[in-house]
């Protein structure tokens, strides 16, 4: 049987009176990359925010490692091993690269040790080692994205949610980031839930796809089942 880490059932979420997620069902399997695609404004970011309790669930459930988590606060979810890399990265511009990474470690508390130590992080993203003392705000978009992933990694996640990590970054860095994410899933068993609009990036790393439309899942399938040309057409309509 597949080892499902995260699952939603009949998930509804709204901003005030405006319902955005309308009974959404999906699953993310352990150690796999699950990608949610869909046109602008269909609710992809809202879904990740709802998983993190930044938007409240109005109906339905979210289950993480067999436990219902839809009513838990964000910090608790972070402590349970759910890492979130939001759109726009949200690194602290006035702190150095090292200090930004340290913030991720501090989230663990003094007793725990990062399972992925700093050395390993620097091996994944060598540029962060070179720029350890540089201010976060002085990094390029791609370097900031790498830093945001590094910061989440030192907090020992079992699951990482990423919101359009390739937005506004050059293709060669996007490819490097894709390779790191793929390795984290395949070698460390970390589950990746990715929101992405760029099909060429998604194709590089995805095991299973979902396509969202107006707050519902419209289509799903494994990388072998889906015809990516059809998807391309659908996304560009
Ligand atoms: N804070 C908010 N308050 C009210 N409505 C919002 C808020 N944030 C987003 N929305 C609306 O919710 C809908 C879904 O937005 P969301 O950002 O989740 O879509 P998305 O699929 O991630 O799109 P994009 O790719 O453009 O980020 C949109 O109609 C958007 O205008």
UniProtKB/TrEMBL annotation:
ABC transporter domain segment(s): 6-237
Segments passing through the bilayer: none
Biological process annotations from GO: L-amino acid transport
Keywords: Amino-acid transport, ATP-binding, Nucleotide-binding, Transport
Record bears the keyword Metal-binding: no
SUPFAM superfamilies: P-loop containing nucleoside triphosphate hydrolases
Gene Ontology molecular function: ATP binding; ATP hydrolysis activity; branched-chain amino acid transmembrane transporter activity
CDD domains according to UniProt: ABC_TM1139_LivF_branched (cd03224)
NCBIfam families: urea_trans_UrtE
UniProt xrefs under PANTHER family: HIGH-AFFINITY BRANCHED-CHAIN AMINO ACID TRANSPORT ATP-BINDING PROTEIN (PTHR43820:SF5), HIGH-AFFINITY BRANCHED-CHAIN AMINO ACID TRANSPORT ATP-BINDING PROTEIN LIVF (PTHR43820)
Name recorded for this polypeptide: Urea ABC transporter ATP-binding protein
């Amino acid at each position: 049987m597949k080892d499902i880490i995260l699952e939603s059932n009949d998930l509804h979420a709204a901003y005030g009176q405006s319902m955005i997620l309308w009974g959404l069902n999906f699953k993310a399997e352990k150690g796999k990359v699950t990608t949610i695609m869909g046109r602008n404004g269909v609710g992809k970011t809202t879904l990740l925010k709802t998983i993190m309790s930044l938007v409240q669930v109005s109906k339905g459930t979210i289950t993480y490692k067999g436990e219902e988590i839809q009513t838990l606060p964000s910090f608790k979810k972070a402590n349970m091993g759910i890492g979130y890399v939001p759109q726009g990265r949200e690194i602290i511009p006035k702190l150095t690269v090292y200090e930004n990474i340290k913030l991720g470690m501090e989230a663990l508390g003094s007793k725990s040790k990062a399972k992925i130590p700093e050395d390993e992080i620097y091996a994944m993203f060598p540029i962060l080692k070179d720029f350890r003392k540089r201010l976060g705000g002085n990094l390029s978009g791609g370097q900031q994205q790498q830093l945001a992933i590094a910061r989440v990694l030192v907090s020992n996640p079992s699951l990482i949610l990423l919101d359009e990590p390739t937005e506004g970054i050059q293709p060669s860095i996007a490819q490097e980031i894709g390779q790191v994410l793929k390795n984290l899933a395949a070698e460390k068993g970390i589950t990746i839930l990715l929101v992405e609009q760029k099909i060429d990036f998604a194709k590089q790393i995805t095991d299973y796809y979902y396509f969202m439309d107006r707050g519902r899942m419209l289509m799903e399938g494994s990388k072998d089942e889906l015809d990516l040309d059809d998807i391309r057409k659908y996304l560009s309509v």
